[in-house]
Amino acid sequence: MRAIAGLFLILAIPAAAQPSAARPGQLVLVVDANVTRPPDLMRLSAGVVTTAASAVEALAANAARMTAVIAAVKAAGIADRDVQTSGLNVSAQYRYVAEQAPQLTGYQARNMVTVTSRTLADAGRMVDAVVKAGANDVQGPEFLLSAPDAALDEARTAAVARGRARAALYARAAGRSLGRIISISEVAGEAPQPERKMLRMDLREAAAVAPILAGELQLSVQLTMLFELEP
Protein backbone atom coordinates (compact mmCIF):
# COMPACT_ATOMS: atom_id res chain seq x y z
CA MET A 1 0.00 0.00 0.00
CA ARG A 2 1.15 3.52 -0.57
CA ALA A 3 2.09 6.23 1.89
CA ILE A 4 2.01 9.91 1.05
CA ALA A 5 3.38 12.67 3.23
CA GLY A 6 3.00 16.44 3.15
CA LEU A 7 5.21 18.87 5.04
CA PHE A 8 4.87 22.35 6.52
CA LEU A 9 7.87 24.20 7.91
CA ILE A 10 8.49 26.64 10.73
CA LEU A 11 12.15 27.60 11.25
CA ALA A 12 13.00 29.30 14.55
CA ILE A 13 16.60 30.38 15.24
CA PRO A 14 16.86 32.49 18.39
CA ALA A 15 19.03 35.60 18.10
CA ALA A 16 22.01 35.86 20.46
CA ALA A 17 23.72 38.95 21.86
CA GLN A 18 27.16 37.75 20.64
CA PRO A 19 28.06 35.20 17.91
CA SER A 20 30.29 33.27 20.31
CA ALA A 21 27.36 32.78 22.68
CA ALA A 22 24.92 31.46 20.04
CA ARG A 23 22.58 28.75 21.27
CA PRO A 24 21.07 25.90 19.20
CA GLY A 25 18.00 26.87 17.22
CA GLN A 26 14.87 24.81 16.69
CA LEU A 27 13.27 23.41 13.58
CA VAL A 28 9.54 22.55 13.62
CA LEU A 29 7.99 20.33 10.94
CA VAL A 30 4.32 19.43 10.60
CA VAL A 31 4.20 16.18 8.64
CA ASP A 32 1.10 14.53 7.16
CA ALA A 33 1.14 10.88 6.04
CA ASN A 34 -1.71 8.84 4.55
CA VAL A 35 -2.16 5.14 3.90
CA THR A 36 -4.93 3.31 2.08
CA ARG A 37 -6.49 -0.04 2.90
CA PRO A 38 -9.47 -1.95 1.53
CA PRO A 39 -12.27 -2.04 4.14
CA ASP A 40 -13.23 -5.33 5.76
CA LEU A 41 -16.44 -4.27 7.54
CA MET A 42 -19.74 -2.92 6.26
CA ARG A 43 -22.32 -1.19 8.46
CA LEU A 44 -25.88 -0.62 7.32
CA SER A 45 -28.87 0.89 9.11
CA ALA A 46 -32.29 -0.48 8.17
CA GLY A 47 -35.46 1.06 9.54
CA VAL A 48 -39.22 0.97 9.30
CA VAL A 49 -41.40 4.08 9.47
CA THR A 50 -45.17 3.60 9.86
CA THR A 51 -48.08 5.96 10.45
CA ALA A 52 -51.55 5.32 11.86
CA ALA A 53 -54.42 7.07 13.59
CA SER A 54 -53.21 6.03 17.04
CA ALA A 55 -49.80 5.44 18.60
CA VAL A 56 -50.72 1.83 19.40
CA GLU A 57 -51.66 1.10 15.78
CA ALA A 58 -48.53 2.79 14.41
CA LEU A 59 -46.29 0.83 16.77
CA ALA A 60 -48.06 -2.48 16.07
CA ALA A 61 -47.69 -2.06 12.31
CA ASN A 62 -44.08 -1.08 12.77
CA ALA A 63 -43.32 -4.10 14.96
CA ALA A 64 -44.74 -6.50 12.38
CA ARG A 65 -42.64 -5.06 9.56
CA MET A 66 -39.50 -4.73 11.66
CA THR A 67 -39.80 -8.38 12.72
CA ALA A 68 -39.75 -9.30 9.03
CA VAL A 69 -36.73 -7.05 8.41
CA ILE A 70 -34.76 -8.64 11.26
CA ALA A 71 -35.69 -12.11 9.99
CA ALA A 72 -34.34 -11.18 6.55
CA VAL A 73 -31.10 -9.98 8.13
CA LYS A 74 -30.71 -13.22 10.06
CA ALA A 75 -31.51 -15.25 6.93
CA ALA A 76 -28.63 -13.45 5.20
CA GLY A 77 -26.26 -15.01 7.74
CA ILE A 78 -25.77 -12.05 10.08
CA ALA A 79 -25.03 -13.13 13.67
CA ASP A 80 -27.13 -11.86 16.59
CA ARG A 81 -24.18 -9.86 17.96
CA ASP A 82 -23.99 -7.91 14.70
CA VAL A 83 -27.60 -6.66 14.82
CA GLN A 84 -28.39 -3.84 17.22
CA THR A 85 -31.39 -1.57 17.70
CA SER A 86 -30.14 1.98 17.17
CA GLY A 87 -33.36 3.96 17.48
CA LEU A 88 -37.03 3.56 18.39
CA ASN A 89 -39.54 6.36 18.79
CA VAL A 90 -43.24 7.17 18.44
CA SER A 91 -44.29 10.75 17.78
CA ALA A 92 -47.51 12.64 17.15
CA GLN A 93 -47.96 14.20 13.71
CA TYR A 94 -49.65 17.58 13.25
CA ARG A 95 -50.94 19.74 10.44
CA TYR A 96 -50.02 23.38 10.76
CA VAL A 97 -52.20 26.12 9.30
CA ALA A 98 -51.52 29.81 9.70
CA GLU A 99 -53.38 31.42 12.60
CA GLN A 100 -54.90 28.09 13.70
CA ALA A 101 -54.03 25.66 16.44
CA PRO A 102 -52.04 22.61 15.26
CA GLN A 103 -54.32 19.73 14.24
CA LEU A 104 -53.37 16.17 15.22
CA THR A 105 -53.30 13.96 12.09
CA GLY A 106 -51.97 10.72 13.53
CA TYR A 107 -48.88 9.07 14.91
CA GLN A 108 -45.58 7.94 13.43
CA ALA A 109 -43.48 5.04 14.71
CA ARG A 110 -39.86 4.65 13.67
CA ASN A 111 -37.56 1.73 14.46
CA MET A 112 -33.98 1.35 13.23
CA VAL A 113 -31.45 -1.49 13.50
CA THR A 114 -27.75 -1.31 12.66
CA VAL A 115 -26.30 -4.33 10.89
CA THR A 116 -22.58 -5.11 10.70
CA SER A 117 -21.33 -7.51 8.02
CA ARG A 118 -17.90 -8.88 7.20
CA THR A 119 -18.97 -9.95 3.72
CA LEU A 120 -18.69 -6.74 1.74
CA ALA A 121 -19.62 -8.34 -1.58
CA ASP A 122 -23.13 -8.92 -0.23
CA ALA A 123 -23.83 -5.25 0.56
CA GLY A 124 -26.15 -4.79 -2.42
CA ARG A 125 -28.06 -7.99 -1.70
CA MET A 126 -28.41 -6.95 1.95
CA VAL A 127 -30.02 -3.65 0.95
CA ASP A 128 -32.33 -5.49 -1.45
CA ALA A 129 -33.29 -8.06 1.20
CA VAL A 130 -34.20 -5.58 3.95
CA VAL A 131 -36.22 -3.37 1.59
CA LYS A 132 -38.18 -6.34 0.28
CA ALA A 133 -38.83 -7.37 3.89
CA GLY A 134 -40.39 -3.99 4.67
CA ALA A 135 -37.62 -1.49 5.47
CA ASN A 136 -38.40 1.96 4.09
CA ASP A 137 -35.57 3.90 5.75
CA VAL A 138 -32.14 2.56 4.74
CA GLN A 139 -28.97 4.47 5.61
CA GLY A 140 -25.51 3.50 4.45
CA PRO A 141 -23.63 1.42 3.78
CA GLU A 142 -20.61 2.67 5.71
CA PHE A 143 -17.33 0.83 5.11
CA LEU A 144 -14.85 0.42 7.96
CA LEU A 145 -11.54 -1.15 8.92
CA SER A 146 -11.72 -3.59 11.82
CA ALA A 147 -8.04 -3.22 12.83
CA PRO A 148 -6.72 0.20 11.77
CA ASP A 149 -3.65 0.23 14.07
CA ALA A 150 -1.29 -1.57 11.67
CA ALA A 151 -2.18 0.83 8.86
CA LEU A 152 -1.72 3.84 11.13
CA ASP A 153 1.68 2.49 12.25
CA GLU A 154 2.77 2.43 8.61
CA ALA A 155 1.73 6.07 8.26
CA ARG A 156 3.57 6.96 11.48
CA THR A 157 6.78 5.31 10.23
CA ALA A 158 6.53 7.07 6.87
CA ALA A 159 5.86 10.44 8.52
CA VAL A 160 8.86 10.20 10.85
CA ALA A 161 11.17 9.13 7.99
CA ARG A 162 10.00 11.97 5.78
CA GLY A 163 10.27 14.40 8.66
CA ARG A 164 13.86 13.44 9.47
CA ALA A 165 14.92 13.60 5.80
CA ARG A 166 13.34 16.98 5.24
CA ALA A 167 14.70 18.33 8.54
CA ALA A 168 18.23 17.38 7.45
CA LEU A 169 17.68 19.19 4.15
CA TYR A 170 16.52 22.40 5.83
CA ALA A 171 19.34 22.24 8.37
CA ARG A 172 21.93 22.04 5.58
CA ALA A 173 20.22 24.88 3.70
CA ALA A 174 20.37 27.01 6.87
CA GLY A 175 24.05 26.20 7.43
CA ARG A 176 23.33 24.22 10.58
CA SER A 177 23.75 20.65 11.74
CA LEU A 178 20.68 18.64 12.62
CA GLY A 179 20.51 17.64 16.25
CA ARG A 180 18.22 15.37 18.22
CA ILE A 181 14.45 15.16 18.01
CA ILE A 182 13.14 17.13 20.96
CA SER A 183 9.48 16.11 20.71
CA ILE A 184 6.88 14.44 18.50
CA SER A 185 3.13 14.95 18.86
CA GLU A 186 0.42 13.25 16.84
CA VAL A 187 -3.13 13.62 15.62
CA ALA A 188 -4.38 10.47 13.91
CA GLY A 189 -7.57 9.21 12.35
CA GLU A 190 -9.41 8.34 9.16
CA ALA A 191 -9.35 10.86 6.37
CA PRO A 192 -12.74 12.32 5.39
CA GLN A 193 -14.96 9.75 3.70
CA PRO A 194 -17.19 10.30 0.66
CA GLU A 195 -20.64 11.51 1.65
CA ARG A 196 -22.69 8.65 3.00
CA LYS A 197 -25.48 7.53 0.71
CA MET A 198 -28.98 7.88 2.19
CA LEU A 199 -31.39 5.41 0.63
CA ARG A 200 -35.11 5.86 1.13
CA MET A 201 -37.23 3.43 -0.84
CA ASP A 202 -40.35 1.30 -0.79
CA LEU A 203 -41.04 -2.25 -1.96
CA ARG A 204 -41.68 -1.20 -5.54
CA GLU A 205 -38.19 0.29 -5.78
CA ALA A 206 -36.43 -2.92 -4.74
CA ALA A 207 -36.68 -4.72 -8.07
CA ALA A 208 -32.93 -4.75 -8.68
CA VAL A 209 -29.91 -5.26 -6.44
CA ALA A 210 -28.27 -1.89 -5.77
CA PRO A 211 -24.67 -1.74 -7.08
CA ILE A 212 -22.42 -0.91 -4.11
CA LEU A 213 -18.61 -0.62 -4.33
CA ALA A 214 -16.42 -0.73 -1.22
CA GLY A 215 -13.38 1.05 -2.71
CA GLU A 216 -10.58 1.92 -0.25
CA LEU A 217 -10.32 3.73 3.05
CA GLN A 218 -7.70 6.39 3.67
CA LEU A 219 -6.23 6.76 7.15
CA SER A 220 -4.12 9.73 8.08
CA VAL A 221 -1.53 10.72 10.68
CA GLN A 222 -0.26 14.21 11.37
CA LEU A 223 2.93 14.68 13.37
CA THR A 224 4.48 17.83 14.74
CA MET A 225 8.22 17.19 15.04
CA LEU A 226 10.56 19.51 16.92
CA PHE A 227 14.28 19.18 16.10
CA GLU A 228 17.33 20.73 17.64
CA LEU A 229 19.65 22.69 15.33
CA GLU A 230 23.32 22.81 16.16
CA PRO A 231 25.46 25.82 15.15
Please outline the helices and strands.
Elements: E1 3-12, E2 25-37, E3 41-52, H1 55-75, E4 83-95, E5 103-117, H2 123-133, E6 137-144, H3 149-173, E7 177-190, E8 198-199, E9 217-230
Antiparallel strand pairs: 1-2, 2-9, 3-5, 3-6, 4-5, 6-8, 7-9
Helix pairs in contact: 1-2
Describe what this molecule looks like in 3D.
The protein is α+β, with helices and mostly antiparallel strands and 231 residues long. The protein has two domains: 3-38 and 148-191 and 220-230, 2-Layer Sandwich (Translation Initiation Factor IF3), CATH 3.30.110; 41-144, 2-Layer Sandwich (Alpha-Beta Plaits), CATH 3.30.70.2970. The protein contains three helices and nine strands. It has a five-stranded antiparallel sheet with strand order 4-5-3-6-8. Strands 1-2-9-7 form a four-stranded antiparallel sheet, covered by helices on one side. Strand 4 (83-95) and strand 5 (103-117) form a beta hairpin. The model is unreliable at 7-23 and 192-207 (pLDDT under 50).
